[in-house]
Amino acid sequence: MAYAADVELASVPNLPATRGYQQEMLDESLRRNIIIAMDTGSGKTHIAVLRLKIEVERQPRKICWFFAPTVSLCEQQYNVIKGALPVSVGLISGSLEPNQWKDAGLWKKVLDTHRIVVSTPQVMLDALRHSYINMGRDIALMVFDEAHHAKDKDPYNMIMQEFYYQLYPRDVEVVVDPQYLRPMILGLTASPIYGGDIARSFNSVHAGPSKDPHLNREELARHVHRPVFKHALYIAPSAHGPDTPFSTNLASLSAVIKTLTIDDDPYVKQLRKDLAKITPQTPEYYRLDQKLSKVIRKENSFTLKGLKDFERAAEAILMDLGEWSTDWYVWTILEQAKAACGSQSEMPTWHNREKRHLAEVIERIHATPVSYYDDDIVDASSHKVIALVQALVNEKEDMEESGEAFSGLIFVRRRDTVVALTELLKHHPVTKSSFQVGSLVGTSDSSSRHAFLDLTRKLIRQSQEETLSAFRLGDKNLLIATSVAEEGIDVQACGCVIRWDVPDNMVSWLQSRGRARRKRSTFIIMFSEGSGLDENVAQWERKAREIVDKANEPERLDVAIEPDIKEYLEFRQPTTGALLTLDSAIQHLNHFVALPTGWHSLENRALVASQPYQGPWAATVTLPKFLPPELRVHKTKMEHPTKSSAQKHAAFKAYKRMYDVGLLDDKLLPLFFQDEEIEHLKQDVEKRISVVKVAPQINAWLPLSDSDPWYRFEVSLGSLPTLLMFTRRPCPPDWLVPGGPPPLYVPRQGQVMMTVRDMGRVNVDDMEIRQAGEYTRRLFWSIHGSRMTWGNLDFSYLFLPTVEEPDWEDRRAWQREEAERGQRISQSFDVNAEEFGRTFWYPTDISIVKNRFGAGKGYKFVSWRYDELSPDEFEILKERYDHFEDIEEVVYPLLVVEPLPSRTNLLLPFKPPRVEGPPLPPKQFLFIPRHSTITLISEIEAQYVYLLPSALRALSIALTTQSLKDQLFTQASPLYAVPSPILSIALTAPTSQEPYNYQRLETLGDTVLKYLVSIQLLSEFPLWHEGYLSKRKDHAVSNVRLANENIKRDMFKWIIRDRLLGKKWKPAYQEIPKISVERPTPDESSATDGKKPELSKADAKLQRKKKVAGELSTKVLADVVESAIGGAYLHGGMDLGYECTKFFDLDLQWKPLPERITDMLARVQTIEAESRIDIPEGLIANVEKMLNYTFKHKLILLEALTHASHQQDYGTTSYERMEFLGDAVMDMIVTDYLYRAEGKNYSPGHMHLRKSAVVNGHILAYFCLRCQFQVESFMPRPVTDDDGPLQIQLQRDEDTVYLWKCLLHSSSRVLHQQKTSSDLFKRLHGDIEDALLHGKIYPWAALTKLQAPKFLSDMIESLLGAVYLDAGGDLDVVRNVMRVLGILPLLERIVRDNVDVLHPVSRLAVWASKQDKKVKYSYERSKGSVTCVIKLDDEILEEAKVADRDRGKLTELEVRFAAAEEAIKFLDVQYTV
């Protein structure tokens, strides 16, 4: 006999994998029929669900059948399976009267509309016997829960004997029609102990071999814990004695029952009436007569029997719980009975005549409601209750002292006691505030007549599923349950289990004990003193230990000690000498998949093995899913002496195969590491160099050569007379059209429009040029002369007026004559105001007045003042001129002036006024003429001086932009089509303080860049998984890479980084910037660790000068590249964005997007053509309906749904590559929407906040949990008329299939996380949905409470990537799917309603910074909970404390967010846009 050892390498780091022993059992169940025998709490149900999941995926045309021995267990497992799998699941039990299903069509409809059926075994047995079901044709897998029941005449065993063994085995060598093959079998049990024979407990199950984990036994032991056994003693009251409790309500009930006779019962009366109508001596007469006699003899009518059962239940409660509980129980049941008798909808199987009779009886029972005062409850409770309460309190204190939250489970035999004990503990003064109590009892949809005590079911307000969900989430910490929770019910690990009643047998004892499976757990049994029941429990303990010892015997474990065998096998690369050996193969293979992984083996043992297996061995190694299917699985022959030898040979073979197909280089290393550039893939972030020395910004006014002519233009500024302008470079074409130049925003005038008209060319030595030089000097000297050189007329631009002003020519001639008369050379256009006034009769067309000679400050002339000053005005004037001695007597007229406009950069749009109403008039001053000067320029020229610096600034930017287009892009490039206004914004750094800079375009371009690079890489490297793709993308788009691409192309020269500073402005001269001979290089001395150093004001000022002069940060260099890409995309869409990105190379192989997408689709088509595997069509159809998109290539959707843990191979990789694509696509769509949002003009920071609000993992997980689809199915249901017979009718059901259930995986951890997230979603959905639809604040804290695992958000991203690829790269199709999922509607609402999306922690930090306070978060752990405490300047903010059950790091995050929200509310922190 030969054995196989299997090895699997996980494909994703930190994968929430199935536990090793669970995977071992799952793998084994896929090979053959087995019964899994593992302890309660070890995850058998998870294995079964995963097994069902795999089977419905690979057998789309057959159904799976899950059996459970009881109705309650069926309902529980039905809920578990339905809650985990995205298929229709049907429930059939004996309560639905399947023996009445006479129509085979009912069965056919059920089988056609369900993929999984859950039922009791008798249902299946009856259906098989009546040929409603054909086992071989209809069933793919049968799962037997609690398989230890399969013995003798049990339905489990009869199904196997009568039908299963009549079919051919699955491994039969002859060709057999599949409908005659046996289905697969999986059995589950935690209790292979029955019949008293230990050996039989392992061998008597006929379905298959009993199987428990051997290879991962240590891991199983770590997850299954034995509780500490304790007992609680109490004194039981005597049935008849002085200590017997007394209940007034029970006494009243008993008194009325004693008066009832069977002859008065309406059921007996009706039988007598029916008997009188039948002919005597007939068979029907005898049958009815016997029925009547039996009812009279046993007093077994519905009413009388129901009331006596009610009385017995109340008596049991009285002896168990005491008077208070009994009085409550009797009162409550009577009230329920009154309601049922008066309603047609409640208890529909009760006949009306019986309801009327019962109502009359109840009216005679005088019961009173109970008191809920603490003392009344305590005084009227039994000693057993006192012992229970004390045990609960002690266990809770012990658990909380160890830092764990309490969770407990009380097993009670009777359903009535569950109801009464629940009510008691909810109101008992010791327990009501410490325990959140829930009830768990079996449920029934029986179509038979409801018994009287079925009224107690009405007292259970929550469904079984709701109660279990609340217990899992910690909303309830104590469950009181009947035996329904003993066997198979999915109750989470409890810290304390209490048996209210002593177990009936060992199986019940083991099963209830198995619920206490925390690391530190207790199992308590309540004994009455002197009962002797403790001896039974001690015997069960000894027997359990005997079973464990038997299970661990060497012949059962089949563990063999491997001999130390020396083997050697090598492969040496012929050129480099790199060596691969058996001993190094596993290490090399792990390095290849870049994961620390473990090996595990699974032996194919026989049913019975007397000795450990000694070999030979084979091995299989399964590589991760980022490889194509043909390269994943590598097997060895069954010829190796040990398991480890087989594994080494398998690894050697696999690694050699990687070399043969070209995935390894000559050094036997992965190709990913073949050159220095790719080495960066293994680095998280390249070292960032902060500053680069570059040449100064170019002077865009300079001619290409000295011989170039002057270009002549006519310039119009608003309503002013036109000017002639001369430049050495032609104006950009877009400046020569109406609306080309930008408007100027002039105070008190509004927008002033500028136009430019081409007037031809002028030679350099033309007389007009010399005149223009002198006029330009005079124009600008008036205000900016202190920063100009008088003799330098080599301006970059020149001006001449088109309209003469004779008066001002006369005044300037007078100034020249005065200068000649004084034999001095005048280098100014300022004259003494007093002399000017006397000479020219105090004219009023003056424009500029200065407060002193030389470098005086300029003011705007208002008027001459001849009126005498008031005393106050004189004192102000005297104070102004206190350094002069000749102002005791004022000589009139005086000058009235006001400041020149402070606004100098007229390109900046007006800001909204801070206060409403017209602006205040400028403040006016009085100047003494003899101490003042007047500048000899006209009012028109003064306006030129004011407007031209801004106009020239705009033209300089336009010329710079045009220069870049001409020299860098060139007219042959598609990028030349990018409009100059867009490109100029892309080149403008924020330091320039222009109205528009590159930041918004950079944000858009960054997204476009990552989108394009992601698609290029995804297509170029089909074997790379998401981790390598992400690192390669990060390397390609890093700031250092982009900065280097900028430097290679000298693009930095065109970055507009100088400022327009009005107070320091001077006209530009024809000077060539000094350009460094050396290539720009990163300044290593400026490398930082990411922290900005503290700078003094002087150092900061010097640093700003350096940036303008010749230093730029790598971020600015990179940002300009990204903004250029953004500008190209904005103008020409993705095609032009692609061309611009391709222009910068980035060391990638570039192909147009359509080609890349075609290449990827071609690979999919190849796999589809070669695939012979049936895909899960139903699952695919459901997802397509949820997305409202039909896939052309179903394999793409399968890949997007495939988790790395999934066992079934459809020829695709796991979803990580699609997630990588979807992330880029979603970012592209969201950023594009935010950039173009009408009327918003969001800054990069605001775009980031809003994008984060719709693409963060929490909200995507929420959308995944919310997305659903209704699947129609049919199930027969019992219906009844008023007093008519029961009927079975086919009724329509709607099963809700959620998107998250459609994840293809094989991990019990994923199943558990899905269930927990679903429970939390049900609890939080209402609040989150309301906040998303109507709230003013984004629900960060509520979303965090979902504690959603990453794979939920990954699903959304991978599905979007799949839609994008399948649609051929059509972003509009993806937008439609994003709208269906809810992503785009949320984004639109955030933008439309200005929702506050700032994170609460950030919001609080911003507020605290403005208030000069420090915020500190700390956590306190106590009694199983964690509390977040916020301190403001070391003062605790009591109102913001938030506590929750401690579930680890995620809970810390959750309470931190919630505490920040509470602090914001308490401090009334207002939201501002």
Short summary:
This protein has 1473 residues and is an alpha/beta fold.
Task: Report what the structure shows.
The chain has 1473 residues and is an alpha/beta fold. Strands 4-5-3-6-7-2-8 form a seven-stranded parallel beta sheet. Strands 9-14-13-10-12-11 form a six-stranded parallel beta sheet, with helices on both faces. It is built from 48 helices and 39 strands. Helix 23 packs across helix 24 and helix 39 (1216-1236) crosses helix 44.
Q: Any descriptors?
A:
1473 residues, alpha/beta, seven-stranded parallel sheet, six-stranded parallel sheet, 48 helices, disordered N terminus
Blueprint (SSEs and pairs):
Layout: E1 3-8, H1 20-31, E2 34-37, H2 44-58, E3 63-67, H3 71-84, E4 89-92, H4 104-113, E5 116-119, H5 121-129, H6 135-138, E6 139-144, H7 155-162, E7 184-189, H8 198-203, E8 210-211, H9 217-223, E9 228-234, H10 248-258, H11 266-276, H12 283-298, H13 302-320, H14 323-341, H15 352-363, H16 374-379, H17 383-401, E10 408-411, H18 415-427, E11 437-440, H19 464-473, E12 478-481, E13 496-499, H20 506-513, E14 522-528, H21 534-551, H22 554-557, E15 570-572, E16 579-581, H23 582-593, E17 617-622, E18 633-635, H24 643-660, E19 691-693, E20 710-717, E21 723-727, E22 744-746, E23 750-752, E24 754-762, H25 767-784, E25 797-801, H26 806-821, E26 830-832, H27 833-840, E27 848-850, E28 858-865, H28 871-880, E29 894-899, E30 925-927, E31 933-935, H29 939-969, H30 980-987, H31 999-1020, H32 1026-1036, H33 1039-1048, E32 1081-1082, H34 1097-1109, E33 1111-1113, H35 1114-1143, H36 1153-1170, H37 1177-1187, H38 1194-1201, H39 1216-1236, H40 1244-1255, H41 1257-1266, E34 1268-1280, E35 1286-1298, H42 1308-1334, H43 1340-1345, H44 1350-1366, H45 1371-1381, ...
Parallel strand pairs: 1-17, 2-7, 2-8, 3-5, 3-6, 4-5, 6-7, 9-14, 10-12, 10-13, 11-12, 13-14
Antiparallel strand pairs: 15-16, 17-18, 19-32, 19-33, 20-21, 20-24, 21-25, 22-23, 26-31, 27-28, 27-31, 28-29, 29-30, 34-35, 36-37, 37-38, 37-39
Helix pairs in contact: 1-2, 5-7, 10-13, 10-14, 11-12, 13-14, 14-15, 14-18, 23-24, 25-29, 29-30, 30-35, 31-32, 31-35, 31-36, 31-39, 32-39, 33-35, 38-44, 39-40, 39-44, 40-46, 41-44, 44-45, 47-48
